[in-house]
Design a protein that fits this description.
Elements lengths: L3 H4 L5 E2 L4 E4 L17 E5 L5 E5 L5 E4 L7 H9 L4 H13 L1 H10 L16 E2 L8 H9 L10 E2 L10 E8 L2 E9 L7 E4 L17 E5 L2 H5 L4 E2 L7 H9 L3 E4 L10 H7 L3 E2 L11 H8 L1 H11 L4 H16 L1
Parallel strand pairs: 11-12, 11-13, 13-14
Antiparallel strand pairs: 1-2, 2-3, 3-4, 4-5, 6-7, 7-8, 8-9, 9-10
Helix pairs in contact: 9-10
Length: 326
């Protein structure tokens, strides 16, 4: 097959968003002012498949191995100097890969994500009428999370490392598959977890009638808005499969710090939405926002800021980077 970047002459620059940018080749053919500002871009989905977008005149096209070359892609290739015979040959070669690619897809049938059941440590369900639980109830109240929202547990009679902790069970398909302990004193780490690879917190909290699932990094972020939590700043393949299986609009809300930005490209590549609301300085994550603004205003700010546009997300990211530097 052909190497699209080799066909494009002149300087090319790889951006943080994964675009190979260059002076667009399509503009003057389409009656627009020739591009001199590097507004053309190629982005690869993998080694064979790519998309072309001109941010000057708006021309778009792409190539997918196993499919014939489309009308717009034929135009682009002709702009790059290929004649009809060459383009027809490449289109034919692409179609020859179809049966092989279909076979590979069949061989790679997706297995359902499963987790084994795990026991919980000995602990008590947090009870509002139990005076020994007051410190744990107060902590949850401060985080704007109700004990009615989740089966929180605690160990009020423990000593040493197991004292002063809230235990949050991990469930999947209504089975216990792990847990995390949040320690309320100054010991570090604050969280110690028994967590299986690929686990996504909060799936069992999602209701069938809900059209949106909000995905956060932290567990208390998710609990404060009935969302799901990655428990890290990355999306694993297993977590991606679980989220896609929900058949909802997925909105990922990264923490508003430097490490939180790592999840953005991965989420967009998966077809998810990104939301970076314009919260006040010092409001780093969803739970901070719920504490400061309340649950409903926080949800509205997330929904209003949600986008799957890579350009809009990049602008938001740059604005946040500037704020973080001050």
């Amino acid at each position: 097959m052909f190497d699209i970047l080799q066909l494009i002459s002149g300087k090319k620059k790889l951006t943080q968003g994964g675009w190979h940018s260059f002076n667009a080749v399509c503009c003057h053919y389409r009656g627009h002012t020739p591009d001199r500002r590097g507004r053309g871009g190629i982005k690869f989905a993998n080694a064979d498949n790519w998309s072309y977008h001109c941010f000057n005149c708006g021309f778009k096209c792409g190539f997918t191995l196993g499919k014939s070359i489309t009308k717009n892609t034929r135009q682009l290739l002709s702009y790059l100097g290929l004649d009809k015979e060459q383009i027809d040959r490449y289109s034919f070669e692409s179609l020859q890969h179809k049966d092989l690619l279909d076979f590979v897809k069949i061989k790679k049938e997706k297995k359902k994500v499963k987790f084994k059941e795990m026991p919980l440590p000995e602990a008590e369900l947090i009870d509002i009428d139990n005076k020994n639980h007051e410190i744990f109830i107060q902590y949850l109240n401060n985080r704007k999370v109700s004990i009615k929202d989740y089966p929180f547990m605690c160990t009020p009679d423990e000593e040493g490392r197991q004292a002063n902790r809230i235990i949050i069970p991990f469930t999947y398909e209504n089975k216990i598959v792990g847990h995390t302990s949040r320690y309320l004193d100054d010991r570090k780490p604050k969280f110690i977890s028994e967590q299986q690879s690929g686990y996504l917190f909060g799936v069992d909290l999602q209701k069938p009638e809900w059209q949106v699932c909000i995905v956060t990094e932290g567990i208390f972020d998710a609990l404060s808005i009935n969302g799901c939590a990655l428990t890290t700043n990355a999306i694993s393949d297993e977590q991606a499969e679980i989220l896609k299986g929900l058949n909802k609009k997925i909105i990922v809300v990264p923490d508003q710090d430097k490490s939180g930005m790592d999840v953005i490209n991965r989420a967009l590549d998966l077809g998810f939405y990104i939301s970076i609301p314009e919260w006040d300085d010092g409001t780093k994550d969803v739970n901070d926002a719920v504490i400061k603004y309340g649950k409903l205003p926080t949800l509205l700010s997330i929904l209003q800021s949600a986008t799957n546009s890579k350009i809009k997300t990049e602008i938001k990211r740059k604005q946040l980077d500037k704020r973080l530097q001050h």
